[in-house]
Structures are given as structure tokens and as C-alpha cells.
Automatic annotation (TrEMBL):
Function: Multidrug efflux pump.
Record family assignment: Belongs to the multi antimicrobial extrusion (MATE) (TC 2.A.66.1) family.
Stated name of the protein: Probable multidrug resistance protein NorM
Organism of this sequence: Bombiscardovia nodaiensis
Membrane-crossing segments per the record: 41-61, 73-96, 117-139
Region ranges (Disordered): 1-22
Record has Transport as a keyword: yes
Bias (Basic and acidic residues) ranges: 1-14
Signal sequence interval, chain numbering: none
Key words, A-Z: Membrane, Transmembrane, Transmembrane helix, Transport
UniProt xrefs under InterPro entries: MATE_fam, MATE_MdtK
Length: 160
């Protein structure tokens, strides 16, 4: 028996599912929203992929160019690129840590705080970069010897 004061009874077919549950979404809307999500993922994935392959691509291009100069230059590039890629790999924590924190704050609607964390991350990266650069310049010769460089590949190029 239907309660006259209640618009929907237990047997009313206009509401399927528990009270407070979302209404079923039509298949066309679901496909559209999936496409939208795929577009958003692609919009994030393509620049990220480019950033991840940039440094190895630069090293590959350097190798192709320097390979035509001399064996000593190629050996020096090999050691130098190993040092650079190792340094970048060790400092990637800053990018991943900052990115996740900024994303968390932006997702929570805290745009100002997210921007502040991003700017703080850039200043920290700048400071770490200056320190790492100074250390690499100061210890370049011992570092090259530690990596096995001997002879012309371990000395700075002569200016022409």
C-alpha cells in the first residue's frame, strides 16, 4: 500500500538504489567523460614525457656531434655526461616532492599556498644548483680521475 504523504514508496520505480545514491549516468555521458579524462591525462603525459627524455636526448645529440672531433673529446663527454646525469638523478627528489605538494594544495583549492610552495621549490632548486655547481667545478679533476679518466680526456680542453 502506498503512503499518500510520501512521494516515493518502496515500490516506486523512479528511484533505483539506496537513498542518497547518485542517479545512473547515461552511457553517452560516461563515454564523453572518459574521453575528457583521457584528454586531460594526455595533456599531462606528453609534456612530462618530453621532460623525462630531454636530458638523455641532449647527451645522445652531444655524443653524435663530439664523436666527430676526437677520441679524447668523446671520452671526456662520456665522463661528463655520466656526472651530469647522476647529478640530475640525485636532485630529482626536489621536482617530485614539490610537484606532489603543489598538486595537493591546488586540488584542495589553496591556490595561493600552492604557488608559494612552487616558488619555494624553485628557490631551493636554485640554491642547490649553485652549491652543486661549485662542488663539481672544485672537484672536477679528482672526480674525473675517480671515474677512470687518464691523459687528455681528464684535462680541460686547450683554448684555440
Amino acid at each position: 500500500m502506498r503512503d499518500e504523504g510520501n512521494e516515493h514508496s518502496e515500490h516506486d520505480s523512479s528511484h533505483s538504489g539506496p537513498v542518497g545514491a547518485a542517479a545512473p549516468v547515461p552511457a553517452a555521458a560516461t563515454a564523453l567523460s572518459r574521453r575528457s579524462v583521457y584528454r586531460q591525462i594526455t595533456a599531462l603525459a606528453i609534456p612530462t614525457f618530453g621532460q623525462l627524455i630531454a636530458e638523455p636526448a641532449f647527451v645522445m645529440i652531444d655524443t653524435a656531434i663530439v664523436g666527430h672531433i676526437s677520441d679524447a673529446a668523446m671520452a671526456g663527454l662520456s665522463i661528463g655526461s655520466t656526472v651530469v646525469l647522476t647529478t640530475v638523478g640525485l636532485c630529482v627528489f626536489l621536482a617530485y616532492g614539490t610537484t606532489s605538494k603543489v598538486a595537493q594544495l591546488m586540488g584542495a583549492g589553496k591556490r595561493k599556498e600552492g604557488m608559494e610552495v612552487g616558488i619555494d621549490g624553485m628557490w631551493l632548486a636554485f640554491g642547490i644548483g649553485i652549491v652543486v655547481c661549485a662542488l663539481l667545478v672544485a672537484f672536477s679533476t679528482p672526480l674525473c680521475h675517480l671515474m677512470g679518466a687518464r691523459g687528455p680526456s681528464s684535462s680541460p680542453p686547450a683554448s684555440t
